[in-house]
Design brief:
Blueprint: E1 4-7, E2 10-14, H1 15-30, E3 43-50, E4 61-69, E5 74-78, E6 86-90, H2 93-100, E7 109-113, E8 118-120
Antiparallel strand pairs: 1-2, 3-4, 3-7, 4-5, 5-6, 7-8
């Protein structure tokens, strides 16, 4: 059923068009939007693989899974000791690398990011 809104004999618009536009606007209003004045968003995941273990504590292979947040903070999940491992938070990926990667150059560590980029450390 087509309904038209008229004023003094002129067609102003179809009622159906008005309802469709209203429905589209309401649907758009429901979609999540980035709030203003909040911290940056985004997560980049990575793994840490040690080819050697100088200390004999964590083992070899993939020993850490982690993320770098949009703020630059780094969260790591140590996969040792089982069954839960441990969690650590660093102010930056640089801080994490200084403490746990560069301090053990003999480990020959490879950090692999979700996009395939790799950083190699050690002798």
């Amino acid at each position: 059923m087509l309904q038209r809104i008229t004023f003094k004999g002129e067609i102003l618009s179809d009622l159906n068009e008005i309802l469709e536009e209203k429905e589209e606007k309401e649907t758009e209003d429901l979609k999540p939007k980035p709030p203003s004045k909040l911290a940056p968003r985004g997560i980049r995941s990575f793994t840490v693989c040690r080819q050697h273990d100088e200390t004999g504590v964590s083992g070899e292979g993939v020993i850490i899974e982690g993320v770098v947040l949009g703020t630059g903070q780094c969260i790591v999940h140590w996969l040792y000791p089982p069954p839960r491992g441990g969690i650590a938070i660093f102010d930056s990926m640089t801080d994490f690398i200084k403490v746990h990667i560069e301090s053990h150059p003999g480990n020959k560590t490879i950090i692999t990011y979700q996009d395939g980029e790799q950083d190699h450390y050690g002798n």
